[in-house]
Amino acid sequence: QKQGYDWYMRKEIFEQPRAVADTLLGRLNERGELILDEIRISPETLRRIDKIVIVACGTAFYAGLVAKYAIEHWTRIPCEVEVASEFRYRDPIIDPMTLVVTISQSGETADTLMAIRHAREQGAKVIAICNTNGATIPRESDAVIYTHAGPEIGVASTKGFTTQLVACYLLGLYLAQVRGMKYGDEIAALLRELERMPEAIQGMLDNQQQVLDLAREFVNEPSVLFLGRHVGYPVALEGALKLKELAYIHAEGFAAGELKHGPIALIREDLPVFVVVPPRGRDQLRDKVVSNIAEVRARGAKTIVLAEADDEEARAAAAVFIELPKLSTLLQPVAAIIPLQLFACELATVQGHDVDQPRNLAKSVTVE
Ligand code: F6R
């Protein structure tokens, strides 16, 4: 039931505060430690892991790209991310010391299933992050972290993605906790921040009007670009994917630092360019993104900038400014993706497309 929404997708976008809260439920004990009972792989085994490989498809793959930044930072375990359909065909280097993490909303994606079968044949341990109880992928994995998003009916993944991000953070923090790494101390603080995430998402949803107006303004655009850096890069990729799937227009996400290595040639007068700006941190990341905005603006592009409300420089470089809540850099994607989901949903609605059933797409891809 759509409960008064025009599309399942829109309903699912608005369910994200609840979905994220449910995915976090009961993970924290009184001592501020993370509990992940479902990881039935012994702490000793997890301490011996020397490499993590994340395999997934589509939106779940982009969640995996975010996970790589977080997991490597918190655990210092080398982490690769690969599109599942490419994985087994290149004879990947995996052994019993490799932890394979697979992310799948449906738990039935054939490419992903084949990848984990291959990994287990090589003796790797497999942890699945999945939204569907008892699906094939969790059944064939050593352990499962379920996202508690509830059924996702719209073909385009939304609450699937944000809950996958949360599950990846939980896994990364759990590995850091088990291995007693230097970021262990940060775990409690990050978990408290994660617990405030539903509120942060709700804030983005409450301010949707600006994004809806923007979608109406851009309804005839043939092309839209998305730029981001660090974990903002997968957000850019996911924002572009939503637009391709739903509105059938050319959309591309780029790592902002790659701009001058080619994509800047695409920038022209009035081209809509979304830019995700990281929070101010110890590094120069945010400053670099702000100068990327100036570069595209100087070439006449229409810059839609997502940044923290008090980032006055980012605001000054923006044609349209979308405020993001204050979050740690690694957690920002959960909030930053919300306006991009709303934008794609609204643009496709105004264009008259079937948002829940985009052409040529199936909800779960059960053939390789
Ligand atoms: C995009 C989308 C797809 C899926 C991909 C993997 O909106 O839904 O890209 O993310 O097909 O599906 P799962 O997560 O079910 O393995």
Question: Could you explain the architecture of this structure?
Answer:
The chain has 368 residues and is an alpha/beta fold. Helices cover 45% and strands 15% of the residues. Strands 2-1-3-4-5 form a 5-stranded parallel sheet, with helices on both faces. α10 packs parallel to α15. The two termini are 31 Å apart. The protein binds fructose -6-phosphate (F6R). The site of fructose -6-phosphate (F6R) has 15 residues, from α4 and α12. This is Glutamine--fructose-6-phosphate aminotransferase [isomerizing]. One of its GO terms (cellular component) is cytosol. GO terms for molecular function: carbohydrate derivative binding; glutamine-fructose-6-phosphate transaminase (isomerizing) activity. One of its GO terms (biological process) is fructose 6-phosphate metabolic process. Homodimer.
What's the structural blueprint in terms of helices and strands?
Layout: H1 8-14, H2 16-24, H3 43-48, E1 51-56, H4 58-75, E2 79-83, H5 84-87, E3 98-104, H6 110-121, E4 125-130, H7 136-139, E5 143-146, H8 159-179, H9 186-195, H10 197-206, H11 209-217, E6 223-228, H12 232-247, E7 250-255, E8 272-276, H13 285-298, E9 302-308, H14 312-316, E10 320-324, H15 332-351
Parallel strand pairs: 1-2, 1-3, 3-4, 4-5, 6-7, 6-8, 8-9, 9-10
The structure holds fructose -6-phosphate (F6R).
